[in-house]
Design brief:
This protein has a two-stranded antiparallel ribbon. The chain has 186 residues and is mostly helical.
């Protein structure tokens, strides 16, 4: 038997991205099991992981986790390259673009909650834009816009609060710890 001459070194960053992508994929699969009263409206639980990665490790790591989550989630759910996959991909692309731009805004005004809401609006905007080009007439999209905008605002805010809580670290004696350094994600 001959050995391959190609060896790819695996770094600690690679392992971290793989673990975080696995967590995001797990949340994607769990979310797919939750029935939705309105098709296309989901809480975006995997976006919690994406935002945490963005805030702790940067945009490039967040993009890797997002792409891996999208591909593996599509494969595991049997929707890889189906219309729903492309809608999710459009949403993820716009959301990541919005987050990439928003990271240059003052941290004082744009923390986890506002970034999460911006990302949620970017996600739904990307999906609706692709749906408008490809699947639905503009009149139908206008009727859906208030529902999707309300969902983006609510779920974006809730997910942002979760991220803010996770970044705040452990709570002791009813008060948050004095450390300003966010805990590391393994």
């Amino acid at each position: 038997m001959t050995r391959s001459a190609i060896e790819l070194p695996v770094t600690a960053d690679d392992r971290r991205i793989a673990r975080l992508a696995a967590l995001a994929i797990g949340l994607t699969l769990a979310e797919a099991a939750i029935p939705s009263p309105i098709p296309g409206v989901k809480p975006g639980l995997a976006n919690i992981v994406i935002l945490l990665v963005l805030l702790q490790y940067g945009w490039r790591a967040a993009a890797w986790v997002s792409v891996l989550r999208l591909l593996a989630g599509g494969l595991l759910l049997g929707s890889l390259f189906a219309p729903g996959f492309w809608l999710a991909a459009a949403g993820a692309l716009v959301s990541l673009s919005v987050l990439g731009l928003a990271r240059h805004l003052p941290d004082r005004y744009f923390g986890p909650v506002s970034l999460s809401v911006l990302a949620a609006f970017g996600h739904i905007g990307g999906q609706l834009a692709l749906a408008g080009i490809w699947l639905l007439p503009a009149a139908a999209l206008l009727k859906l816009l208030p529902v999707f905008a309300a969902a983006a605002l609510i779920f974006g805010a809730v997910n942002g609060v979760i991220v803010a809580r996770l970044l705040a670290g452990p709570v002791s004696s009813g008060r948050q710890s004095g450390s300003c350094t966010p805990p590391s994600i393994p």
